[in-house]
Design brief:
The complex is a heterotrimer. Chain A is 23% helix and 36% strand. Chain A is of the alpha+beta class. In chain A, the strands form four sheets. Chain A has a six-stranded mixed beta sheet, with helices on both faces. In chain A, strands 2-1-4-5-6 form a five-stranded antiparallel beta sheet, with helices on one face. The radius of gyration of chain B is 22 Å and the shape is globular. By secondary structure, chain B is an alpha/beta fold. Chain C is an all-alpha fold. The longest helix of chain C is centred in the C-terminal third of the chain and has 35 residues, at 367-401. The relative contact order of chain C is 0.12. The chains are: A alpha+beta, B alpha/beta, C mainly alpha. Chains B and C meet through helix 3, strand 2, helix 4 and helix 8 of B and helix 19 and helix 24 of C.
Chain lengths: 367, 338, 574
Amino acid sequence: MIEVKSLVKIYADGNNPGVKAVNEISFNVEDGRFYTLLGPSGCGKTTTLRCIAGLERANGGEIIVAGQKVYSANDNTHVPAFRRPIGMVFQSYAIWPHLTVFENVAFPLRVGKERFSNSDVQKKVKSALEQVELGEYEDRMATQLSGGQQQRLALARALVREPKVLLLDEPLSNLDAKLRERMRFELRELQRRLRITTLYVTHDQIEALSMSNRIAIMNGGEIIQEGAPREVYLQPKSKFVANFIGSTNQMAGQVAKIESDGTGEVATGDGKLKCTLLEGLTVGSNVVVVVRPESINVLLEKPTEEGNVIEGKVGAAMFLGEYLDCAIELGKNTLQTHQRYTLQVRRGTQVWVELPVGECMALPAGE
Amino acid sequence: MRFVNRCFSLSLPVLLLGLIAVPIGRGETLEEIHKKALKEGGTLNFYGTLAQVNAEKILPVFEKKFPGIKINHVDATSDKLVARAVTEARGGKTLGDVLQIPLENVTQAHDQGLLLDADLPEAAEYPAGLKGPFWISSDLQYFIAAWNTNLVKKEEEPKSYDDFLHPRWKGRLIAEPRDLEMLLAFAKYKFKSDEKAIDYWKKIAAQNVEFHKGHSQLAELLVAGQAAACLTCYSHHYPSRIKKGAPVNYMLSEGVASINGTAIFKNAPHPNTALLFARWVASIDGQKVMAQGGRNPAHPKVEPVDKTRTEKSYFITVADLKEFPKYDKIWKEIFKLR
Amino acid sequence: MATATMTRTGRAGFTFDPAWLIPLVGAGVLIYLAVLPLLMLFIGSFQAEVAPREFVYTLKNYQNAYASQYTYSTFVNSLIFGSGSAILSFALGTMLAWLTERTDTPLRKIFVPLAVVPLILPGVLESIAWIFLLSPKFGYLNVALMTVFGWDSPPFNVFSLPGMIWVHSVGQVPLAFLLMVAAFKSMDPSLEESAMMSGAGTWQTFKRITLRLLMPTAASVLLILFVRTLESFETPALIGIPARIYVYTSEIYLAFNEYPPDYGRGGALAVGLLLLSAVGVWLYTRSTKESKKFQTVTGKAFRPRQFELGAWRWAGLGFLLTYFIFVVLLPFLVLFWASFLPFFATPGWDALDKLSFDNYRFLNGFRPFWDAMQNSLILATMTATVAMVLTSLIAWIVYKSRLPGAWILDFLAFVPITIPGIVMGMSLILLYVAFPLPIYGTIWVLMIAYVTRYIPYGMRAASGSILQIHSELEEAASASGASWWETFKRVTLPLLRPGLVAGWIYIFIVSFREFSTSVLLATGESRVLSILLFTMFEQGQVTVVAAIGVLMIATLLTVVAIFYKLTGKIGIQS
C-alpha cells in the first residue's frame, strides 16, 4: 500500500550545503498493516512521514501510495498533499480552535475535490465521531475538549475521508501515562477494525512494540533494522538497536568458538559465555554480548545444570513495585537484572546469575 | 478655386475659434453657457482663498442658480494655491478651472503661463484699475488696524496709523509677516516718499511687533486677547465677529486696499463652466452675493453689506505689483523677517 | 485544461503553481507602493526647472537645501525639537509605565487604559488644544496662573521651541508608555529580587538594577521617539510655522507650498530627512536585536514583582493624577468648552452667557464638514481593510511559505516605516501628477499613501498572529485535502482574526487622524477632517474647529466601540 524507494530528503538552509535528513531509505507497508517508524528524535522518521504525506518535497527516490505514484525524482512527480489519499494525525493534534467539533471533522469533506451533500456530510461526520466515541460532543468548540478527546477528534478527522492510508505522527506523546496506555489499545483496535493501512511514527518503544505489525528502527536518516516487534526486540542486529529498544546489559569480549547452529562462545572478562552469534562474525572478532535484564535469572544457590552461570554478589537492590531491580556485580561487569520481588537478597548477598543461551546475542563491538 | 476659398473662409473662423477657443461666449447669455457647462460634467474646480465661512454663503447660491453644477472648492492660502497649480502643470495637468486669489498671486500664475486671456462682457462696467487681460477683480480687501476693546481704553483708541507710534503700544501689537503692501502703499500713497514710509515702519518695528501668519488667525488672536491691536488685519473679518459679541473694533479712517482677482485656467477641464462662474461672479448679481457672503465687492455699483471700506484708501495698482520684490526686501529687513 | 491535467499528475518543472505567483505579485505591489514614489522623489531632487516645464539635472538643490543661511537654524531647531521631545516623552512614559506596572501605587490599574487614551486625540487637535491652554496672552492655563499668583507676565508661551516640545511630547507619551510597559513586562524579576536579597533598598534596586537592565531598551525607545518627532508635522505646522520656528518637515512643506514652489529644494530636504529616518530605524532594529541578546529570558511574560514605595506611593498617585488631569483631560475639556463659544474668549463668568450650540448648528448645515467626515470614514475603513488583507498575505508568505526570497518581501514591507508622512505626500504628488492613473487629487491617492505608510503596522499585527499559529494547523488542512487557498481561507485567516482585528482598529485610528501626508495631498473634494481642521484653524474659525474636533473624537470612539462589539462576537473563544 505504501512503497518507499531510495527516499532522500536534504535540508538546506542558507549557505549550509545541506543535511541528509533521510538517506536513501526503502520500505514497504502492506495493505491493512500497522507499520511503525521508530527512532530517537532527529533520526528522520518524521521527515519520512511528511514526505509521504506530501508536506515535504523529497529530493530523491520514489513514493507510491495505494498504487499511485505520488512522488518520483526521476520524472519529477510531486502530488501536493491535498491530492494524496491520506489521513493524518499530528503530534499537536492540530485541532482548529475556531471550529466546533463537528466542523473540524466535516472540514475534509467540505474542501476536498469530491463534494458531499449536506446529509452525507452529516452522516459521515456522525459515524466518524461515533467511532471515536465523541458523538455527544459535536456542538462543542474544539478547544473545550480534553487532551484525550482532542486526540480522538484528530483521529476522526483523519478518518472521515476514508483515506487509503493513515499517517500518525507521535500522536500519543502529549498524553499522560495512563491515558497513553489506553489510547494505545484503542488505536490498535480501531486500526484492526477498519483494516486501514497505518504508518506510525514514534520514539516510544513500548508503543512501537505493542501496536505494530512491523517496525523499522531508524537512526541518522537510515533504517537500521526492520522486522516484527518480537524480532527486533529479541534479535537486535546492532548495538544501537539493542540499546534503543529496552534496556540492556553489554559485556565486551572476543568470539572464541563458532558452532554450526549459529551459536558460539565468547570470552568475556567474566568467563566464557555461550551466545547466539550475529552472521558474519569470525573467531577473534571483538563483540559485545547483549542480554536483557529480564532474561537474567538470579539464583541463591549454584545451579546444577550446564549453561552460562557466573558467580557474583548483589551490588544494589531496588524495589520498583512490579519487579525488583537488582544489580549483580561480577568480576568485571555489573549486570542489571529484573527479578520477581519475592527474591530475598541484600547488598552483598552471594548469588549466581544464569544467562539463557538463546537470549544472549553477540554483536559486533564497533559502531 | 472658389470652392477652396469658400472652404478657407469657412474654416478660418472655426479654426480660430478652436485655437483661442474658450473666451468666446461674449455675446452669449449665462443661460446659454450654463447649457454648455452641463455637458462638461457639471463640476467646477474652484481654486480660491475664500474662507470656508464666506464660501458657504456664496458658492451654494451659484449652485442653486445654475442647477447641475457642483463646485469643488480647493481652498488654501494664495501661495499654496499657485504652488499647487504650478505643480500640476509640471505634471502636465490642468485640474483647476477658476482661480480666485489676490492679484499679486494671480500674476504669478500668469507668469507661469497658466492663465487664459478672457474678455468678459461684465468687465465693461469695471474701472480700468480693476480688470486686466487675464483677470477681473472679484472683491477688494482693506488692510486696516483693529483692536481689542477689553485691552484698549476708549480714549486710547487709534484714529490713524500715526497713533501707533505712541509708546503705549509697545509690545502690544501684532501683524502678518507677509504684508509688504503696507509699506508699499504708505510709501506711494500715504507719505508719497520711500524714506518717510521706511522711517514710519522702523519706528513701528521698535514697538516690538509680534508676527503671526494668516489674517484670520490674526483676527482670532486679537479677539482672544493675544495683543491689544493688529496693524495689518482685513476689515471684512470684523463685522461678523463684532455681531457675535467679540470684544473688538476696527479703524476705518485709513487703510490699504488690495485687489482679489478672478481668472480662468488655460486648458481648464471645464472651460464653459469656468467661464460661467467667472462671468457670474463679476456680474452685479454675483457681486451682491459676494457682499452678502461678507466680502467687499469690486463692482462699482455694489455696496458692501457691512462697513468695510476705509475713508482714505491707498489702492495697490497693477503697476505696483512689479515693485513687490523691492518692498518685500525692505519690509523683511525692517522687521528682520525671513 | 492543460493546467488542470498538470496539477493532477503533479508534474513540477514548469507547473503553474499559484503559490509562486503570489510572492511575485506581492513584491510587485510593494515596489509600486513604497519604492516607486521614493524613486520619483530622488529623481526630482536632482532636477531644476530652468523655464516653465523645462528641467535640467543639477546638484544645486542640495546646495540650496543644505548650504543656505537657514540650514543651521533648521538643523538646530530640528535637533532640539527631536531630542527634547524624545527625552520628555520617554521620561513621562517611563514614569507612567513604572508606576502602573511595577509599584504599589494606589489606583494604578485604572491608569493603564487611561494612559493610552490620548492616542485617539489627533495631533492637530492636540496642538490646537494646547494653543488654547498655553498661548501667552489668552491661554487658559496662563491666565489662571497669572490670576492666582498675580504675575504680570504669562509663565508659558506655546509658540516657542519648549512649547513645541511639550505639545509634541504629550501626544507621544502613549507610544513611549506602551513600549516601556512591554520592556518592564519582559524583565526577569529574580534579578531585582536578588538585589533586594543582597541588601539593596527599593530606590537602590531601581537605580542600580532596574534602570541598568532597561538601558538597551531605553536607548532604542529614545531613538524611535526621536525619529518619530523629526517625521512629525502637526506641531511644526500649527505651532512652529506661526512662531516662525522651522524644522525639516516645515521646510519641506513650505518649499512646496510657497510661491514659487521649489520642488528641487524640497526634494533635497526630503531625501535628507528620509536618510536620517532610515538610519534611525536601522539603528533601532539593530539595537533591539542587540538588547534581545542580553535579555535574560525572551518571549516569556513574567509576573513582575512590585516595588513597595511606602509613603512615596502617595506621591506616585499624585503624579498620576496630575498627569491625567493636566495632560490627558485638560486638552479634551478645553476643546469641549471652546466648541460652545462663539469666539475664543478668556475664561470667566461672563463667558458662560456666550455658551451655545451655534457651532454645532453651523456644522450641521456646513457641507465641507460632512464631505470631509465622509472622506475620512471611507478612507480609514478602506485603508485599514486593504492594509490588513495585504499584510496578512505578505506575512503569510514571509513566515509560512518558506519560499526562497520571502525575506525580500519582509524587507520591502518594512521600508515604508522610514518614510516620513510629509515625504510620502511629496513623493506621491510628484508621482501621480504625472502618472497615467487619474487618481491625483482624489481620495484614492490618499488611500495609496495611507496604505503604504501603515503596511509596517499591519505587518507587525499580522506577523505576530501568524507566528502564533502552529504550522500543523495548516498542514492538517492540507492533509485533509484542502488546497493552499482553501487552507488560507478556512483555517489561516479565521485563526488570524483577533490579531487582524486589533491591527485593523489601530490602522483605522491612525488613518482617521492622519495629517502630515494628507496636508499635501488632500484638497477640495478629497479634503479629510484633519485638513479641514487645519485650514479652518488657519482661517481663524477656532471655535468651529473645536466643535469639529469634538465630533471627530466622538466618531472615532463610536466606530471603535462598534467594531469591538461586532468582532467580539465572531472572535475566537480561547
